[in-house]
Amino acid sequence: QDLLNSALGRIEAAHDLNALISLNEGAAEQAQQVENRVAAGETLPLAGVPIIVKDNINVTGTRTTCGSRILGNYVSPYTATAAQRLQDAGAVIVGKANMDEFAMGSSTESSAQGPTLNPWDKGRVPGGSSGGSAVAVAAGLTPVSLGSDTGGSVRQPAALCGVYGLKPTYGRVSRYGLVAYASSLDQIGPFARSAEDLALLMNVIAGHDPRDATSLEAPPKFAAGTPDGLRGLRVGVIRESLAGNTAGVQRTLDDTLSALKAAGASVGEVSLPELKYAIAAYYLIAMPEASSNLARYDGMVYGQRVSGSDLMESMTLTREQGFGREVQRRIMIGTYALSSGYYDAYYSKAMKVRRLLADEFNAAFGQYDVLLTPTSPFPAFRTGEKTADPLAMYAADVDTVAINLAGLPALSVPAGFEEVDGVKLPIGMQFIAPALKDELLVGLAGGLE
Ligand code: GLN
User: Which residues carry out catalysis (predicted)?
Assistant: First the structure.
């Protein structure tokens, strides 16, 4: 109860950051249940740990709005597997984090509840789409949080807010109860302030779930640090990620490479030429999947309904008024790319690029244990700076989307700062591992601390 009250106090004090969409009304009761379980002799790995989860993760009795007007009054009738595992391990879900509408964005500006502010500079974005979850940890509202990552939405806000953010291997964490954006890319991932906290969380949430057929059997065994430290680790810097970075990002990459070498790792460079098509391929896969997934919001079963004179008009008005501009744009582009006559030119072409990219990553892992890029080419940008230009916003994902296309795990590690207009802004480095080697990422992050 003390931990919960302390988190609630911090949330109240940081109200201006707009990091949360709602509080969990059932939290006090859940904290009491944890106290009872501990008193009865149970050993719980996360006993009493307050935690915030992104608002696209269902938790019974909480509103799950996905940052959208269309789900503004939707209350979850069930709990997502990842959230359930946290609760079973003793964690108390305190609230739901703000996010870009339906996780579509890189800045947490498109939420129906308004933008979340970056605690390092309140005139700047926290990144997105899991900006509220990143800010929750960066501002110390809770020690850990959950987000979701379809094309970078855990890693990029982690980088822009100076915390750790892990996108697990596709299938490592159950997606049951995560509201779908692009199902073949979506993964739930943790934010934390240390590799040890990441390991604690992953050991709880990872593993097979009979309710998600794409979830994997691999037993979780995460630890911060590896037996031999970083000695002998082969790190490949991806050449395509070296262009277009700010001076501070470049300097932080150089510093990271020096630290790796000093710890006994070997460092080389590797080229993945197909990466130049990654953003185009990503959006031509994510948007079609989104257009299908979001067809269910027609005002008939879920969320808000705007009534019209007949069924068609009701559905049209509901979607017109319920979805924001970016979501509408993506539904239209996605529908277009899937339609007869365009499918081969766009969607099917993008799927071929996806295959080639995965092959290039696999080839690179023949030479290197992990690959390295900056998580974002720049630190946090100004609120409003990219909202008028969707393509500029999409370009913010240049270093992250390919990892989801290939299904790989990747971890953003807080690695340095860049001073902009007299303010220190955090910078993250992204380590990428072969599928199911998520543990290696958390281990090496521990070695780097
Ligand atoms: N910014 C990317 C997008 O808008 C990634 C979002 C995400 O990972 N959910 O699709």
Answer: 54, 129, 153
